[in-house]
Amino acid sequence: MSADSIASGDGEYTLVDVGGYQLAIYCTGEGGPTVVLETGLGAPSEAWAPVQQEIARVTRVCRFDRAGRGKSDPAPTTPRTCADMVAELRALLHNAGIPAPYVLVGNSLGGMNARLYAYLHPEEVVGLVLVDGSHQDQFTRISEDLPEPGPDSPDSHRGFYHFWTGGRWRDPSNNPENVDFVRSGEQLQDIHSLGDLPVVVLASGVFLRETPTRPKAGPRLHEIWQDLQRELA
């Protein structure tokens, strides 16, 4: 294991070897259990900075950049699945000397990874917080109710429609982290229960209402998202 430091806007990340490449992690606060913050698809961990600042008042909290994001090295192989990212996070935490137990907090894609981590390594996780966490069936469920663009629809509407309904989401090259959502969804299908693990699901009151599609579709898509979040809960 090797570790180096690199400056960020609000402190120093530690670069930790996870098998021939390095991931960046930044921890603050003291106490336990350690809270681990994971972002959504394509986002650097700095998006969690205000939240981390508050959590650090009561316990230790760490945010990290997945491979290819923020200050972390690119992944040596792609496409990637949730299982790959879970293995990387576990190696990062262990090699950085951050002992379990953890409270995992995941937004969007990070929510899928947090659920899979808790399922595969229940002995290391004492709490789970999903912040608009992705659902393995979201692409098929939302695409079923997504209206076709009209003749005067802007390109943003057409692109959104074809990404969801045309199956572009199935191709890892169409997302910034080369995530294989088909295989990742299959990995999540077996999770029917996490036992007596405390779980909190936070869902936005406006998410998908402003989706680039026909105006009347927004409320319906938002309700589908709320249904998916209730299923996670």
What is the overall number of helices?
7
Q: Mean pLDDT, rounded to whole units?
A: 90
Write down the overall geometry: globular
Distance between the termini: 38 Å
* Strands, count: 8
Considering DSSP H and I runs of 4 or more, what fraction of the residues is helical?
25-40%
Order of secondary-structure elements: EEEEHEHEHEHHHEH
- Lateral arrangement of strands in the main beta sheet: 1-2-3-5-4-6-7-8
Low-confidence stretches at least 5 residues in length (pLDDT < 50)?
none
Question: The biggest beta sheet, please?
Answer: 8 strands, mixed
Strand content: 15-25%
Which class of secondary structure composition applies to the elements?
Answer: alpha/beta
- Write down the Rg: 18 Å
Overview features:
233 residues; alpha/beta; eight-stranded mixed sheet; 8 strands; globular
Structure characterization notes:
The protein is α/β, with parallel strands linked by helices. The chain has helices at residues 49-55, 82-95, 109-120, 138-143, 155-165, 181-188, 217-232, and strands at 3-8, 11-17, 22-28, 34-38, 61-65, 102-107, 125-131, 199-202. The chain has an 8-stranded mixed sheet, with helices on both faces.
